[in-house]
Amino acid sequence: TSQHNNTTHLCLLSTMTTLPLRPKEAVILIQNISKNTLVNNSSSTDASCTPMITSKKIIELYLAGKLKYASKDEIGIITMGSMQTKHVLANTDDGDEEMQYKNIEEIQAIGALKFNLLKRMDTVQEENVRNVARGNLLEALTVAATMIERHTGKRKYSRRIFVVTDDSLDPIDEDELKSLANTLLKSEINVNFLGVGKFLQGDSKLENLLTQFSQDTEGICVPAPDAIELLSDLRNRAISPTTTLRGCLEIGNQGVGVPMWIFKKTEKTSLPSAKKMSAVSDLSKPDNTGAVVPDRIYHPLDNPDAILERDDLIKGYTYGKNIVPMSKIDEDQLKYSAEKGLKLLGFADERSIPRHHYIEEVYVCIPPYGDENASVGFSTLIRGMAELGSVAIVRFQSRNNSEPRLAFLYPYFKKNYDCLYLNVLPFYEDLRQFPFRSFRTIQHTDEQLDAMDQLIDEMNLAPTKDEEELAPGHTYDPFLHYFYQCLHERALHNTEKIPPIDDNIKEQCLPEQSKASLVHKIQERIKEKTEECNKLFDLQKVEEKGTKKRKYWFALGEGSASLASLESHNTEAEAAINAVATTGQQVKRLKTSNDISSDFPSLGDSNHDQQLDLAARTSLFGHLAERVGTTDPVKDFKEMITRTDQDLTNRAVSQMQGVIVKLLKASIGDQFFDKTLKSLHALRQGCILEQESAEFNKFLQELKTFLMENNVAFWNLVKENNITLVSSEEATDSNVSPDQAAKFFTMSQSAPVSQPAALTQDEEGLFDDLD
Fold first, then answer.
1. What secondary structure letter does DSSP report for 467?
2. What's the rounded Cα separation, in Å, for the pair 254 and 262?
3. CA 479, 480, 485: angle at the middle one, nearest 5?
4. Phi, psi values for residue 360, rounded to 5°
5. Ramachandran angles phi, psi of 204, nearest 5°
């Protein structure tokens, strides 16, 4: 038995051992920088292809790969053939002036890998290698092994030495080399050789000797071209298998369970997080990281001079138009309190779960590693599920007091192991119930079907079992690797521009751009099939619609229009309205702006027009609307009724009514009919949303009375667009029945419509002064 969730579970559990994790690596890189490495001894005529430059490139690729894929490994670098002697064994014995292990320099002590190490490799100067013709391999290996032994001790490490060299080495005694191989093998240190120049590409005695030495220490030998290709290949970041949950799959309420460990099988890889740093800090100083400390100050919106302490702050959640405060104590009480675990709720047919219900990451469930008894119970469970075609519905909670999730388990079998996959299921609130058109009524010909079938066959990415293009297990994220390429180049050369995407990334991540890839061949092969489809289907070229870009005052430069002309262009309609409405001009039964207050008593403010104009102009600067202006009344109205910082609904409705009256008054013919109609429609929709239907219905009845006597043309537009009264089916606060709303346009002037209150004398004569 095992104790779990304060309940005794009868588990098939004997011992719970840990999974074998990837051990951290302790690596020493040995670079031969002797005099002969400055001479190009390869078949290339390029002067830059010297063994020294090639070895630097190999080490740079190796370190860059470690930074990207295994940054927790620990690296050290030493050079042999240097003019300087500096390492852990550099001392004298009994006063002897003869120093041991000469011409070996420690560039980096073994430790955590930092990017500065790449820059330090560029500091290996040629003057350090002018007088040393060859490097002493045996002594360099002895120093490297000593560094690893002293650093790792008895801790669990994977110990490796990489020697980057050409054939310019001191003579090697075979007996000493065999003895050293035995010593390194006992210490579990393997030695690998990366040959530069022509080294390791022939069959010389030295190459055979070092190849055998590498095999004796369980290492490998790789020539420079192959090493560069291998190190340039894209790889996946090494991730230790960390369990998401360790426990039992609880079955029923009798304490019975099956031991399981749960790991994440898939997870979206994100870019490394960016940290804020000072742009003016002197990063050349060794102790200066450029880090900054944020300091936040809170103050009330209406009093910027007052400073609030953190204890004076509280969270607020939007609820309708209001913000409801919620203290930390309240939040703690609302949290779901439960222990982590996995509880079986029941079984279901695997066909009952549609594919679009698979959400979030995928988890894999296995029995505890090394527990044979638990494996038996686990295996019988998943085989029974597979035979019945069933999935297990479970409650999944990976951490204590976390949000419980509904999930399902389904069996999966491989040659060497069985497991259960776990997928989280959505709740009803997570589903999107979108109605889509059915294609069952679409008519097509047999020729069209055959042409499309042939096109699909030609574009098959897996024509054989052994060949599959774009398989997720072999397809890398081009954006992620290009980001690391740019990050690497910017760190090495801070003044350089962002480099173009590397050809290797194009080849491995963007196969359609590589002529040797199957995807590119498919694109070339289907040209005839696509032309055939073009003939069978009615295809039309879709012209891209050009988007008009707004010009703002702050974007004006030399030769551009002035701010005054820009304002005049953006507010042309408003200028026309104001020219008629505020200057006293008499055009087609128009009256002065002072009479608007008699149209709507709620708009009796004498500064109403000026405030509307000011609000329209301030919208140029991107502020939230405080007034409904005549330039874009629909936009201003929607902004005001959706404000969460304050409730402006009543003001917005009242001002929108005033704007509609103002537009009708200023319109010469049908000049502003379109804007007025859109404003009336927006007012209706806003009143439904904000439960102000009574206010809209009252206004529409007054508008109808006036328009039928004075502006029949606009009233016909209202009827054509069916802008009628808001009925009780559309808004719960409306007293108008659907039948009354439908008969509104045909209803006579005297026919009554249900309203919450009778119209006052002033409201009945709302539009009397407009003729």
1. B
2. 23
3. 95
4. 60, -160
5. -80, 170
> Residue 53 in 3-state DSSP?
helix
Residue with tokens 């102000």: 692
- Could you report how far apart the first and last alpha carbons of the chain are, in Å? 93
Rounded-to-10 torsion of CA 219, 223, 225, 228:
30
Is the entire prediction scored with pTM above 0.70? no
What is the DSSP secondary structure assignment for residue 60, as one 8-state letter? H
Cβ atoms of 237 and 68 within 8 Å: the answer is yes
List pLDDT tens digits, range 297-332.
888 888 888 888 888 899 999 888 788 999 888 888
Strands 315-319 and 189-195: unpaired
Residues whose CB is less than 8 angstroms from the CB of residue 532 and which lie 6 or more positions away in sequence, other chains included: 451, 454
Contacts (Cβ under 8 Å, ≥6 apart) of 209: 172, 174, 177
CA 513 to chain centre: 25
- Dihedral of alpha carbons 127, 128, 129, 132, sign: positive
Q: What's the mean pLDDT in 660-665?
A: 86
User: Per the structure block, which two tokens stand in for 215?
Assistant: 């095999």
- Interhelix angle 693-710/649-666, rounded to 10 degrees, is 10
Contact 754, 740 (CB under 8 A): yes
Asked if 213 and 196 count as a contact pair (C-beta separation under 8 A), the reply is no
Q: What pLDDT does 295 receive? A: 84
Give pLDDT, residue 746: 79
Which residues lie across from 469 on neighbouring strands?
A: none
Q: What pLDDT, in 10s, does the model give residues 409-452?
A: 999 988 777 899 999 999 999 998 888 888 877 888 999 999 99
Confidence of residue 1 (pLDDT cuts 50, 70, 90): very low
Backbone torsion region of residue 124, taken as left when φ is above 0, otherwise alpha when ψ lies between -120 and 50, otherwise beta: beta
Integer Cα distance of 146 and 148 in angstroms: 5
Single-letter code of the amino acid located at 690 = E
Tokens 């002065």 belong to residue? 592
The structure tokens listed for 68 are 């990207």
Residues 393, 405: Cα–Cα separation, whole Å = 11
